[in-house]
Each structure stands twice: as C-alpha cells, then as structure tokens.
Amino acid sequence: MSNHSITPQSRPHFAKLLAECAALPPLRTAVICPEEKTALLGALEARDEGLIEPVLVGHRGRIEAVAAETGQDISSLELVEADGEEASAHKGVDLASAGDVQALMKGHIHSDTYLAAVIRKEDGLRTDQRTSHCFVMDIPDWPKPVIISDAALNVAPKMAHKVSITQNAIHLARAIGIVDPKAAIMSAVESPNPGIISSVEAKEVAEHDFVGGEVDGPFALDNAISERAAELKGISSPVAGKADILVMPTIEAGNVLFKALVYMAKAETAGLVVGAAAPVILTSRADSAEARIASCALAVLYANYLAKS
C-alpha cells in the first residue's frame, strides 16, 4: 500500500533513518481517532513499512466505515473504543501511561485536544523537561539533516523553556545518529543586543549546562549554518557554521523557516513531540506520505534511544 518515495537519491537523510529502523521492532502505537481516510491510511502505511504496530483508538463504527470505504482490512488490528476526540486522546494516554503502547500518533483530532491529554497532570506523560516539538528537515543538496525547534508547540517560550527545548532537541539528534550535536540558539544577530530580547536570552540559554551536545548563541541564520559566514564575521565557536539544531526564538520564526524550506527549497519534514515519557507523533492532513513515514521513523529511533537512556 505504501506509496512514499523516500530513497537514498530523493531523500538521503530520511532514507538513512528508515535503514536504521530496519533492525528495530515496530513500535506499538496508539493511533488517536483514525476516523478519516488520511489518518487511517497513514497509520497503515507506517505499519506496512514495519515502523509501527497500530492500536486504533476511537469510535469503532467510524473507523470501520473508513476502512470499508478505502478497502482496508483492519480485522487483525486491536481497536479500543472511545467516543469523541477528548475521550480518545485520554484513552491513548492511559494506554501509554500503563505501558500498553510505546507511542502515540495523531489521527483526525485537533492538535490542542491531543496535546492537552499528553501533558495532563494526572497519570500523563510529563517528565521534568518541558514538552516541545522538533521538525527534522531533509533539504535537497544539504549535507545533513537539520532540526528546527520549536515551530509548532511552544508559542513564545521563556528563557527556561528554551533550555528544555534545546536539551530535548539534543536528545532527538543523538537518537537519529548525530554523535555530537551542535545547537545554535537563534536570533537576528550574533551578539547580545538589549534591543533584541531573543539575543540576550540566547546568550543566557547557551550558558546552561547541557548533556550530550554543544550549545552556543546568539546566532543569526547565516553564521549558524555557514562556516564561511561565521569566518567572515570573526565568530569563534564550535557551533558557528556547523549547527545541527536551530533553536528558534518564537513559534513564528520557526514556522516561517520550516515552511520556507518546504515550499521554496523543496525540503521534506518529519515531526515529533519530545520531552514526554513516550514519543508523540504529530502529523497533519496536509503532510505527504514521506512526512508521515519519516515521522514514524523518528518515533522508532527516539523510543529506542529513551529505552537505552
């Protein structure tokens, strides 16, 4: 059934992720409200790739109707009854909290309802880190994947939140095989300027102790990703020009950057909510088959990383 086009030629970085997943068992995943064609087929596509073992959570009648409409046999899959978005989201989190599933995947459900269940206080998936979202970008002709955070979840993160966002992204980078990830705390300039609050906060964030990676900031985009730009500006830093992770000042900045890369540079993106006790796959109906498959691959690698930590 899978119709994605992730190949070493088309998407070399995502193809590498899929190759790394080949030796790992599928992730038992609660798919929340797969009550619409794209939501159900996305989960089944990931199953066919050997990435997930779907547990369908939602209204049985609607799920079975969509399966019939699309010609899919779901009789072998576990189906957990829950009526409505909120009930389905909380049921999925119950399964994850109890260890019955290893990950969550968003189906035909509003993101805020889905995420509210994930971060609930009672028996939820909270950890000592703030939950954040990472986009992993496969950009044509770029030599490595680039992680952008946060462009989907934390709207206007405070300085302390950016510390968690950075640490979460470092963990994800290590999960996908980046041995010594370099995180650039982004702003519009490369030195603290009292008139640009994000530049001052970036310097403060960079002064924290992080586990598993190198962090510095502030950086403007050019001197974060281009060694030549950093050299021309006289910036001496192990992160300058070599960033694997771009920690964005606000959700607007992150959103504009990742969409510019997708629509203007023909990049593909995979996304995952990190910092919770289990991987949380956050897909959109607008996502391509490649994005859905790559997002599930991220979840598999991240879950494997968490299990070893």
Structure characterization notes:
The chain is an alpha/beta fold. It has helices at 12-21, 37-48, 60-70, 85-97, 111-118, 159-175, 197-206, 221-225, 227-232, 251-264, 289-308; strands at 27-32, 52-58, 78-81, 103-106, 132-138, 146-149, 182-186, 214-219, 245-247, 268-274, 280-281. The protein is globular, with a radius of gyration of 19 Å. The model has no long low-confidence stretch (mean pLDDT 94).
SSE arrangement:
Elements: H1 12-21, E1 27-32, H2 37-48, E2 52-58, H3 60-70, E3 78-81, H4 85-97, E4 103-106, H5 111-118, E5 132-138, E6 146-149, H6 159-175, E7 182-186, H7 197-206, E8 214-219, H8 221-225, H9 227-232, E9 245-247, H10 251-264, E10 268-274, E11 280-281, H11 289-308
Parallel strand pairs: 1-2, 1-4, 2-3, 4-11, 6-9, 7-8, 7-9
Antiparallel strand pairs: 5-6, 5-10
Helix pairs in contact: 1-11, 2-11, 4-5, 6-7, 6-11
